[in-house]
Amino acid sequence: MFFSLLSQWLRAPFTHYRLFHNFVRQDFTGQFAGSLGGKLWLFVTPIVNILIYSFMFSVVFRAPMPAEYDGIPFVVFMMMGYLPWFAFADAVGRASTMLLEKAPLITKVMFPVQIIPAVGTLVPYMVHGIALGLFLFYLALQGYFSLLWLWLPLIFLFQFLFTMGLVAILSALCVFLRDVQQIVALALTTWFFLTPIVYPVSMIPVEYQPLLILNPMHSFVQMYRELILLDSFSMSSFLVIVPVSLVTYLFGGWVFMRIRHAFGDVL
Amino acid sequence: MYSIAVENIHKDYRIYERPQDRLIELLTRKPRHNLFHVLQDISFTVLEGRSLGIIGDNGAGKSTLMKLLVGTLQPTSGNISIKGQVAALLELGAGFHPEFTGRRNIYLNAALLGVPDANIADMEREIIEFSELGDFIDRPVKTYSSGMYVRLAFSIATMVRPDVLVIDEALSVGDIAFQKKCVERMNEFRKQNKTMIFCSHSMYHVQELCDTAIWLEKGRIREIGESHLVVGNYEAYCNSRSVDHHEPLDINEVEDRKIKDCRVIYTMIRNLDGEEIDSIEPLTDVIMETKVEILADNLTCNFGFAIMRNLSEIMSAYLTTDLDDVPKGPFKKGEILTVRSRLNAVSMRVGEFHVLGGVADASGLLWYETKLSNLIKIKSNKGVGSVVMRVDWSVERD
């Protein structure tokens, strides 16, 4: 029972590849359907965002950089945390409405519902992945490239699995308890400021710094920064990332599959 | 071979007073709900290639049963086994994305129904043709009229060629021409030995399209059998209910009131010569007659006749309530009254009926007693249609 649920969860996007593909395309292009700029917004939005933050943090607020990142512009330092974070936050933020929006479909058409959290996570990761890719390309031109970058897709995949597990739990919970929507919005803001993204770890009082190990997003951000900017592989972060991602992904899937049959009764 | 076998399914909805109760129950496993029985003791089978209609009042559980068959709901207990691929039209265009073109939605919807893209490409032209959308196929679905929406959804669902097709009220939308095409398509479907489940308020369609029918009442099967029989009984039931609400002519109800101020001795039909008859030539005059014995002093009454097709359906009724030139009493105990009403030029052309004669109180609202006549037949005659009227012809040259 336990394993058959998990295998249904793991395999859904592959066994129902057509449906998955169509859903992703619908979700992805649906964002721009009817708009004049179309897919251009995929590139314009992150570029404008990057410019705004560059201005804010290099001109208005000037955060002190930690010594090991010496010589790296603050914007680059921040963006390495900000871009992956936003893929995560976007997916989790949409999680609460994900199933509610698809209610007519879920109650009227028989299809593997577990595809929805997968689609809902993949699409933000595609959108923000583009921004991240653009930024990495820019960094490569600036001469940051190293072979360690080959780890990036794997780390990004672990972050994706971690996100998908959370999305699965939150989307399923929200069917039963609409308050989850508000809670998630608040929690994301809190989480954002508790993660050293727009500030370096060194600004946190030393006695609180060990607590950061409880924040998996910090490990991800740390991993990206050290890989890309310092050319080093953060083993301490990696040892957090792998188990946390896999456990979250599998646990989220298990919860989702357990209560998925009740969706029809409530939606 | 059974295509669908439903064994003794029950479906309960859990009603929670507060939304958080559901969560607490889920976590603590302690019940915090009231049960609402939507479906109880539902068992039936559908043979391969046969079609089943589901009828019943709103709230009888039709939609829930359909959802159980499709699989979007799980039964609380019992088993459902369905052989082959199921395509459902429970809500037309449930999978449509309003911003996308019809063509894009064909692919999306077909993927939902489990068809590979390669096969859809072959069907695409056929679907567009059948749906009669023409150039609209490349416009966003949000610009479609509801008729176009349905046409596209129906075309996709049937073109996918499932083994079992579940349709909920699909034919109620769309113009007559398209409805006709749908019926043809569904008949074609039956010829290909596919199974169909059809839920509709259109009794005509259920009779035409389904071999068997299930009549659901308050979550239980009230009747299951050949579709025209079940539909007939259901229609009779619906009619009787509407009569009950408007006309207090039901015999049993009067018995219940136990009012014994008077009694009706008989009701019959006579011809103009005064002989009792049991058949009528159309367009002749007849007399409805009822004899009443007064059992209480100082009784004021109203009288009425109703022509009934069966015990529950009134074809035509005549009451003295609003008339002033009819003696209504007060009558003395022991008096016998003969009440007659002349029907001029009976205009029914076919069929048979009873005449119901009765006595009501002064207000005309409370019926003391009523009595039915024997069955009266309309004599067979030449003509077409159910009604015949007296006509005068003229043909003139200008």
Protein described:
The complex is a heterodimer of chains A (267) and B (398). Helix content of chain A is 73%, strand content 0%. With 267 residues, chain A is an all-alpha fold. Chain A has one domain. The model of chain A has no long low-confidence stretch (mean pLDDT 87). Chain B has 2 domains: 2-241, P-loop containing nucleotide triphosphate hydrolases (Rossmann fold), CATH 3.40.50.300; 251-378, abc- transporter (atp binding component) like domain (Coagulation Factor XIII, Chain A, domain 1). Chain B is 27% helix and 32% strand. Chain B contains 9 helices and 18 strands. Chain B has helices at residues 19-28, 62-70, 102-112, 117-131, 146-159, 176-191, 203-209, 227-246, 251-257; strands at residues 2-15, 34-47, 51-56, 77-82, 86-89, 164-168, 195-199, 212-217, 220-226, 262-270, 279-280, 286-294, 302-310, 313-319, 336-343, 352-360, 367-372, 376-378. Mean pLDDT of chain B is 82; it is low at 243-257.
